[in-house]
Amino acid sequence: MKKREIDAVASALADPENAERTAEEVAAAAIQALDDVRSRTHRLAVVGQIQYGPQEPVHTVILGPFSCRGILDSEVKFRKALEGPLSAREAGQGLAWDPMRKRGRGRFMLAPMFWSARDAWDFYRGSEVAEEVVEAVSVLPRGISPACLCGLKHVPPCRHCGQAYEHHCPLHEPEAPIHRCKAA
Length: 184
Fold this sequence. Notes:
By secondary structure, the protein is of the alpha+beta class. It has helices at 3-13, 23-41, 75-83, 87-93, 117-124, 128-138; strands at residues 44-51, 59-66, 105-112. The protein has a 3-stranded antiparallel β-sheet with strand order 2-1-3, with helices on one face. Strand 1 and strand 2 (59-66) form a beta hairpin. The two termini are 49 Å apart. 9% of the residues are buried.
């Protein structure tokens, strides 16, 4: 445990009002004090996807929470925290493949964790990076047409029902029938 966490729990346990509380209430106060400290420092999660084989489903997993240096209260601090060594990154790298069965594959990314949706919006609101993204999107051309698929020879299977279906070129045949299976 870190000194900040120990100090928070010690402060909760040293409260003079504990003499009038039950053991459960004192324990709840100590846990709450620890949670309050960790809610500011343990703000990093590993979001990953693992898959045993190409025909197997992709499973999404989340590891965490992990701590990092400093308090993550802005995107700039989050990006700076990612520059250094992190236990979260080491844990994410463990998702690359199943070491027990010696197969599979996985990928991961590090993400900031929040207690509420409002905290997430507040985290990115007004940040320079978010403003740059909004600016870049605003200058995109509005008349983007779909890609031409006329040269594709492969007939892909439907991801829901598994049946092969004929694809059409959305650029040259926009009115062609779309495959509709019963599983979707």
